[in-house]
Amino acid sequence: MRTAVRRPRTNHLDLAQRILDVARQRGFAPGARLPEQQIASLCNVSRTPVRAALSLLAEQGVVRWQADAGYVVAIDLAAQPAISADLPATAEDELAEAILRDRSARRLDQTVTVAGLMRRYSAERKTVLKSLNRLTEENLVDRAPGQSWLFRRAPDDPEAQGESYEFRLLLEPAAILTPGFRLDGARAAALRQGMEALATVPDAGFDTREFQRLDIDFHGMIAEGSANRFVADALTDHLRLRRLPGIYAGVNVFRLKQSLREHLSILDHLESRQYEVAADLLRIHLRLSRSQRPQAASRGAPALFGMISRPE
Fold this sequence. Notes:
Helix content: 55-70%
CATH topology of the largest domain: Four Helix Bundle (Hemerythrin (Met), subunit A)
Number of domains: 3
Largest sheet: 3 strands, antiparallel
């Protein structure tokens, strides 16, 4: 008899990622202790889910248990930016990703039903509902009458991608220039470390999924830093659509690495509160990303971004 694989809970996976972020932010080296109570305080949770999250990280070889010290860091976190992509997925997470892939490939209509998804994926009703609720929370689908759900329009064709970049060009620089903009220092530090590490990975080993996570988090940080809640909410909702598969299709590693360098340059000026410069660089970055032509970007971007040195 085949034994069912026990899948981790979503909150434990989320907490495992938060523990990784905290460890990177604090510069934990291999061998550094991870006391459950300290981690619980830093993540504002109880010790029970911390124990489960650390167990997940131990299964991935990221941390290890020592009888005399408890859990300790087992690897150089700064040198391995793509750990998050290797964490296991819950059943509803896997189903949600499958639904998004099939919608992106036009294998699913814009409107879907619970019964139809159950048949298509041979999934239990509760798993389908959890997946749809997760996608609803992320503003990727909307609840329709009855047992139907409606996919929101995504930037997954040339016309929609162009409109998406126009929308972002209007709002993202404005988010930085809104009076009261505030940068989350801890989040910025973790992003800087992750982006710098990924930028040094050889092309053959470049992890596009990790780039996608960092890219969404970077632009999300800018959106959430706006003091205008309507600007922040509109951008945050729109940026969630970039989780869809195929968003980075056709963009080569050269351009993705260049984007990382552009992110870092923008971050330099955000940290120095040179918001006008940061907003200008963000406009250039979005225009280059919209073009998705590395040969055009290589003629202009390095010189332009290189002209503005990191502030002291």
